[in-house]
């Protein structure tokens, strides 16, 4: 069995390779033909293909979860037709049947089914099974005797699927833009049609269920279309396909040739989908390992929540001095003892001499400096004709390099901006010069923003590029190599995948400090509860596809023009960052005495700072759909439990069942509230903790005997 350990940042790449490739035995996987049915099994998952109908069943060997009567399909641009395997007339198991294959995930057993129909391209479904693993990998290949173009290819197409009462299907956003929530939809008879991007899960009240999604991200944007509501417990349509639309203006790009290949799709059955999502992440990382980083999670301060995009040299110098005097040596620092000061936005007119002075001051204080780039988008900041303006450090005008649609019109993804054609050599040269200039100035940390613009579909100048994902891969590979291995890279307004070009990725859109999206006097978006919704369904990404998550900056007193928040909300916000497993970055305006006092009070708890510095995500206890309010992390000698209260008016008396959070039965456990050092007593079964209105608690639980 492929046994996955809990990932430790810095060991990810090597550990994944060793872990996956250590499995060289493929015994125990069988293939049988019974009449018209080909059946493959490894004892945990069963794949059954009907050679009469061209349909396939994916079955959990326990019988509880299944994907039944699934076909596969694709489109052919030019003929305006869609083809499906169950409409083909001949279906055959390809020789030699079950064969051994060495893959990025280890040794596997592979078999394929060929579907044929007169006058249509052949379809070949490839199924890959691993010993001791409850998942199957599925890929669809289209084989034609003439060149064809395809921009929709679906390895799994299900007309109807029935599940037990209480089942939900997860809708995941494509990127972290526009304050989109992860949305679990109950199969309760309410009508809804949606698209989950890259991955999804179908799961019951006990969290058991199916995890599915693509694990290769070279060409296709993966969508999981679903439709529910005609009947409780039924999904009327479930399609896992390449060719999904996100915020695109143009249709998905087309793959061309005599051989069209889908993304590889992961479909697994798990007693707990949290384990399934971790396995899914590890499978992705085995194919495209995350960018290595051994210097620990970033800790520090960012300008945006304190000053917006306009700040001055004296403000940066004063902030650096405050961090050094009051926070940095009191525990609020990274593994090297440094803080990172990140200059967000486009630096509001700073000239190079001021930048050099600011960075020198930061470095003299034993700190690191962070910069901001939005390399794939052109912001319209001039009153002159925007198309006549020139690229950074270039004589090339934007008219020559903006991404255009089929009619030749510039593509506008965000207001007052244009997406750039990132396949253009001139664009890459300008990005390279920006990076070189930032490195020359001495920046240690790169925040890259609005990266989804680099994935937009359109007409790309490079004739080898036929999709947005292809363009993005090419550009991000260039950027990661140009920045180099010794600078931290964090992404924002970025897709979940491809994931191998950065050390962290923002799991949410911008955050403003309020407890929920429903607090009077505050923005109706960007709350801590919204962040924890994102963390609930993306905690698995930290330590698998990225070394760390990025939970955005923390506004512990007020966000620029927002009202002040209470101390309880601030502690709640700190805890939300800690459980996410990633960057711990303040954004308080230390020139405000109350904000400075709040930071000194909450960011100098050495024990809690040390936990945050480990950069390891907590596992959500998924009892709330909107956002989990209970999170658990295993330590060497015990457990950490984070408890949140999203009610700003009433305290919470949280009774924490040890069985529910995964503690082994039998021993007597003792619990301590780490924020106030209060003992919460001893018990074999549960612990209770009082959490004030809008507050959060962090417990350490270990064996008392």
State the low-pLDDT regions, or none.
1-25
Query: What count of helical segments does DSSP give?
Result: 11
Helix content: 10-25%
Shape: globular
Taking all Cα atoms into account, the compactness measure Rg is 26 Å
What is the arithmetic mean of pLDDT?
Answer: 94
Q: Please, what is the oligomeric state?
A: single chain
The helix/strand class is: alpha+beta
C-alpha termini separation: 33 Å
Report the β-strand fraction as a percent range: 25-35%
| Sheet of most strands | 11 strands, antiparallel
User: How many beta strands in the DSSP annotation?
Assistant: 40
Layout: helices, strands, pairs:
Layout: H1 12-21, E1 30-34, E2 37-41, E3 45-50, E4 56-60, E5 66-76, E6 81-84, E7 90-93, E8 99-103, E9 106-116, E10 122-129, E11 135-150, E12 153-158, E13 161-162, E14 168-171, E15 183-186, E16 192-197, E17 199-203, E18 209-214, E19 222-228, E20 234-242, E21 255-261, E22 265-270, H2 273-287, E23 299-302, H3 304-307, H4 313-327, E24 340-342, H5 352-364, E25 368-373, E26 377-379, E27 417-419, H6 425-441, E28 445-448, H7 468-483, E29 488-491, E30 504-506, H8 528-538, E31 548-550, H9 567-580, E32 584-586, H10 593-602, H11 606-613, E33 619-620, E34 630-634, E35 639-644, E36 652-657, E37 669-673, E38 678-683, E39 686-691, E40 696-703
Parallel strand pairs: 23-24, 23-32, 24-25, 25-28, 28-29, 29-30, 30-31
Antiparallel strand pairs: 1-2, 2-3, 3-4, 4-5, 5-6, 5-12, 7-9, 8-9, 9-10, 10-11, 11-21, 11-22, 12-20, 13-20, 14-15, 14-17, 16-19, 17-18, 18-22, 19-20, 26-27, 33-34, 34-35, 35-40, 36-39, 37-38, 37-40
